[in-house]
């Protein structure tokens, strides 16, 4: 049977198919060469994520929330009010402590006044000692004279006894004056001790007042730095406790970085300061630049909750990953499109040390 002769259409289809096959082959060849060149030139990994400081907003005071001043994803400035807690109980504590402090101040003033009065009394008692001592001295001279007169039979026994009785009285008065002076000095010392106790109590109340004022300031929760608020889980009227996490804030004042988990076979030639090329999955047409700032001192599995122990069972060798921390270069406006947790691919040029 005679073979059918190809038509012009068949020839055209065959030609077009051939050209398409050649184009596909060339495209695959270019892609393959480019891929091989990338693998030859760069150490790369797609096990990498963007990181930022995402910190909790924690309450340092408990109470009812009376106002929430932020929304989810809202940018905030340092010092902006985020939450307000009912402060009436804290105000009462401040007022009560201030009243107690004022009471102690008044008590100290009373003790100071008493001390001045006791000092005047003590000076008067000291003067009485001198007067009583002078009387004793004078009466002692009279007694000595009457004793001589009595011995010379120039004075009667009654006269000598009267003089001796007066001497005993004056000596008793002198001793009483000394005791009064000692008692007044002791009362002054007691008052000074009371003043020391009151002064110590005043210092305690001042510290307590400062603490209550500090607790009062905690009822207004502000942004610790410029940033962006995360998910909002609280509302007005909720009861919170001190130490409770109320929200999360992303820090805008620090640089962003990438944690790239490279295989242990890839890190031999990596050094701090090496330049890095970064491509984000969210922006495949945009290239970011970075710099290696540190390599982890241990593999990622070593920091896990239950690190592997190859001595406890059958050993299976698994290539480990070493976290490499990379700072993302560029201004805040350039890197603002990157968000914490985004997946990126990281490329580190193997030849940059050789060029250096």
From TrEMBL:
GO terms for cellular component: membrane. It is found in: Membrane. InterPro entries: Beta-barrel_RND_2, MdtA-like_BSH, MFP. It is a single-pass membrane protein. Residues 257-298 form the CusB-like beta-barrel domain. Its main location: membrane. One of its GO terms (biological process) is transmembrane transport. It comes from the Bacteria. Residues 57-251 form the Multidrug resistance protein MdtA-like barrel-sandwich hybrid domain. The keyword Membrane applies. Residues 143-208 form a coiled coil. The keyword Lipid metabolism does not apply. The chain crosses the membrane at residues 12-33. Keywords: Coiled coil, Membrane, Transmembrane, Transmembrane helix. This is Membrane fusion protein, multidrug efflux system.
């Amino acid at each position: 049977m005679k073979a059918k002769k190809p038509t012009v259409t068949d020839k055209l289809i065959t030609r077009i198919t051939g050209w398409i096959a050649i184009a596909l082959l060339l495209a695959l060849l270019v892609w393959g060469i480019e891929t091989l060149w990338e693998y030859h030139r760069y150490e790369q990994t797609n096990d990498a994520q963007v990181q930022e400081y995402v910190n909790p907003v924690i309450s340092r005071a408990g109470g009812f929330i009376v106002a929430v001043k932020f929304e989810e994803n809202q940018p905030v400035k340092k010092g902006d009010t985020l939450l307000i807690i009912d402060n009436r109980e804290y105000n009462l504590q401040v007022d009560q402590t201030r009243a107690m402090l004022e009471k102690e101040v008044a008590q100290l003033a009373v003790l100071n006044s008493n001390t001045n009065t006791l000092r005047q009394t003590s000076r008067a008692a000291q003067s009485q000692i001198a007067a009583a001592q002078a009387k004793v001295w004078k009466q002692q001279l009279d007694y000595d004279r009457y004793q001589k007169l009595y011995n010379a039979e120039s004075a009667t026994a009654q006269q000598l006894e009267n003089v001796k009785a007066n001497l005993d009285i004056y000596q008793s008065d002198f001793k009483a004056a000394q005791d009064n002076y000692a008692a007044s000095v002791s009362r002054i010392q007691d008052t000074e001790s009371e003043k020391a106790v009151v002064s110590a109590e005043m210092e305690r109340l001042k510290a307590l007042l400062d603490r209550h004022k500090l607790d009062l300031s905690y009822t207004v929760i502000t942004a610790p730095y410029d940033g962006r608020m995360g998910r909002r889980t609280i509302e007005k009227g909720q009861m919170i406790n001190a130490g409770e996490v109320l929200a999360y804030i992303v820090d805008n004042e620090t640089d962003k970085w990438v944690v790239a988990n490279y295989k242990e076979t890839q890190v031999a030639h990596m050094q701090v300061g090496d330049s890095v090329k970064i491509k984000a999955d969210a922006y495949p047409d945009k290239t970011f630049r970075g710099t290696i700032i540190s390599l982890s001192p241990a593999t990622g599995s070593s920091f896990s909750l239950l690190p592997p122990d190859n001595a406890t069972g059958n050993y299976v060798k698994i290539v480990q990953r070493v976290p490499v921390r990379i700072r993302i270069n560029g201004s805040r406006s350039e890197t603002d499109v990157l968000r914490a947790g985004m997946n990126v691919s990281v490329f580190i040029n193997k030849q940059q040390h050789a060029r250096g």
